[in-house]
């Protein structure tokens, strides 16, 4: 299982189109994802101050596109990258992200 942080609007668009094709797929050639322990780091680094975020819970065995674990930015940790559109059948759950007291994002306890 790995995860992708998205806006609610991006997820709405994906459901309408029948597949998830975020901007990063066109720019970088892959969809950025993370492991459970990397979610808060990703939110703080790339989504600071944004509201209405969701976590897409992705079952890699259901993916139609190829994927690889890579450290392309030399961060000393790998991230799963999907090299093609994300088929919606691979998304086993969508969990809203919420902020706690002081606006700090907290990881939902109900992530698969």
Based on the model shown, name its key terms:
21% helix; alpha+beta; three-stranded antiparallel β-sheet; globular; ADP-ribosylation fold; single chain; 10 strands; 112 residues
Describe the structure.
The chain contains 3 helices and 10 strands; from the N terminus they run βαβαβαβββββββ. It is α+β, with helices and mostly antiparallel strands and 112 residues long. It has a single domain, classed as ADP-ribosylation fold (Alpha-Beta Barrel). The strands form 4 sheets. A 3-stranded antiparallel β-sheet has the order 1-4-8. The longest helix has 10 residues, at 8-17. It is globular, with a radius of gyration of 13 Å. The model has no long low-confidence stretch (mean pLDDT 91).
């Amino acid at each position: 299982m790995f995860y992708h942080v998205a806006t609610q609007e991006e997820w709405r668009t994906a459901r309408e189109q029948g597949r998830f094709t975020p901007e990063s797929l066109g720019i970088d050639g892959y969809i950025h994802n993370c492991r459970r322990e990397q979610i808060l780091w990703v939110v703080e680094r790339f989504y600071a101050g944004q509201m209405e975020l969701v976590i897409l819970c992705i079952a890699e065995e259901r993916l139609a596109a190829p994927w690889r674990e890579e450290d392309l930015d030399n961060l000393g940790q790998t991230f799963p990258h999907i090299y093609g559109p994300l088929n919606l059948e691979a998304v086993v759950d969508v969990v809203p992200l919420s902020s706690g007291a002081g606006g700090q994002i907290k990881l939902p306890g109900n992530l698969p």
